[in-house]
Amino acid sequence: MKSSRETDLPKENVMGTLPINRLLLSMSIPMMLSMMVQALYNIVDSIFVAKIGENALNAVTLAFPIQNIMIGIAVGTGVGVNALLSRSLGERNFERVNKTAVNGFFLVWISAGVFTAVGLLLSEQYFRIQTDIEEIVLMGKDYMFVVCVFSVSIFTQVTLERLLASTGKTFYAMISQLTGAIINVVLDPIMIFGMFGFPALGVKGAAIATVIGQTAACLVGFYLNLSRNKEIALSFKGFTPDGWIIKTIYAVGVSSILMQIAGSIMFYGINQILLSFTATATAVFGVFFRLQSFLFMPVFGLNNAMVPIIAFNYGARNKNRITKTIKLSMLYAGGIMLFGLLLFQLFPDKMLLLFSAGENMLAIGVPAMRIISLIFVFAGFCIIGLSVFQAMGSGTESLVISTCRQLVILLPAAWLLSFLGDVNAVWWSFPIAEVVSLTLCVIFLKRLYNQKIKSL
Fold first, then answer.
1. HSE of 106 in the Cβ direction (CA atoms, 13 Å)?
2. What is the mean pLDDT of residues 205-213?
3. How far apart are CA 62 and CA 272, in angstroms?
4. Is the torsion defined by CA of 424, 429, 430, 431 positive or negative?
5. 177 close to 35: Cβ distance less than 8 angstroms
6. Domain spans of the chain?
7. Structural contact between residues 313 and 13, judged by C-beta atoms closer than 8 angstroms
8. Which of 112, 212, 234, 421 has the fewest CB atoms within 10 Å, i.e. is most exposed?
9. Could you tell me which residues come within 8 angstroms of residue 106 by beta carbon, excluding any fewer than 6 positions away?
């Protein structure tokens, strides 16, 4: 006898019936817009911070690897939850759908507790091992303390958005993300410079604005999941951790987490190499990273829509819908990244001036942006490929490609090129690593097709 929960559900999910192009666009466009706004808030955040001074921008840049690990764990866990939940919907296993959701919350809240401890105990030490510039240490310590101690907000926000995306409700995920980003942008100048009676808190104000925005997004996310996401029952009554579900979540998600950790190690290592030239080069790298995120975020939004579609149809054993989703995603990603390449090649100086760049920063930043942006078109293909592996439960391939790109190739190449004594040489390590990444991605995608898709 079917439960009332099961009988209330529609017999067919749109991820298995709607034409692929229409489905992919209808799910991805809201995610693209919301993630572009999220990236825009990061850019605006840095623009305001840069007005304090170059050291303030450096402080936020040096804190980024820790923030990136936090986001990586949240997103990686969400990827695992998303893939298992969507596959369970495709198999019509509704009991496992609900268990997957609550186990996902259990995992991210434990992770948030770890970063709260990191913020309380290690914020100052983290900066002192990187630089002896006291102003950077003090501002960076304040920033990292706030974002880590209150990290439960970002962990919860990401999980709630992933639950909405996993059932195809990306419009509501967009509302949640937009809420947090807009509140953050509005509060940034108020908290940083002191307006409407608020004290001027500088870099710490930027961190506080971020946390308030994330908390608002959480509240909206909870409401939308409870009121609109009928496929999932968010009930923690009688909850006990499910070992099989946790193992399955991390079987997919751990590769994404480790990729983000690898990215943080890369970012940290590149910062140290650049600091051996000048602190300005580190500020340039931080600015480039934020600007490229505005371009990459639409592709990540495309990914967020693509993963549940592929996972659902893999569970439903629909080969044609899987292959069409992959091809269209790569086509759209390539178009987005080609536009970005042209933008970075033609207007690097104008983009740097948004961050109050002086002569020295422009001299280093213009060639940096033109050289690193050569990776964009290749990167679009690879980003889609990595998410295909995750959606199909083959996260190891994603991890191998990402690790080779960021740690095995990029960092050693950057270190070796630094011996040429020219900071511009260091930037060429990025195109070198991307070519290797692209080659591996093509090889692994072909193998995945033969092993998992061809026989469906």
1. 19
2. 92
3. 10
4. positive
5. yes
6. 18-453
7. no
8. 421
9. 239, 241
Distance from C-alpha of 148 to C-alpha of 120, rounded to nearest angstrom: 8
Asked whether the predicted pLDDT for residue 93 surpasses 80, the reply is no
3-state secondary structure of 264: helix
- Distance (Å, whole) CA 78 – CA 312: 16
Q: In 3D, which of 424, 25, 5 has the Cα closest to residue 232?
A: 5
* Rounded CA separation 339/429 (Å): 22
User: What does the block give as tokens for 117?
Assistant: 């401890």
pLDDT of 390 higher than 80? no
The alpha carbons of the chain give a radius of gyration, in whole angstroms, of 22
Give the distance, in angstroms, between the CA of residue 341 and the centroid of all CA atoms in the same chain: 20
**DSSP assignment letter at 18:** S
DSSP secondary structure string for all residues of 221-242: HHHHHHHH-TT-----TT----
Highest-confidence segment of 225-229, 373-377, 395-399: 373-377
Query: What's the pLDDT score for residue 16?
Result: 67
Whether residue 35 has pLDDT greater than 80: no
**Identity at 198, one-letter amino acid code:** F
What tens digit of pLDDT does each residue of 353-367 get? 988 888 898 999 999
Q: Is 356 exposed, middle or buried (0-12, 13-18, 19+ CB in 10 A)?
A: middle
As a dihedral over the C-alpha atoms of residue 299, residue 303, residue 305, residue 311, rounded to 10 degrees, the angle is 160
Range 230-250 average pLDDT: 80
Using alpha carbons, select from 65, 59, 108, 103 the residue that is nearest to residue 84: 103
d(CA 331, CA 380): 9
- Say whether pLDDT at 393 is over 80: no
Task: Name residue, tokens 């509005």.
Answer: 186
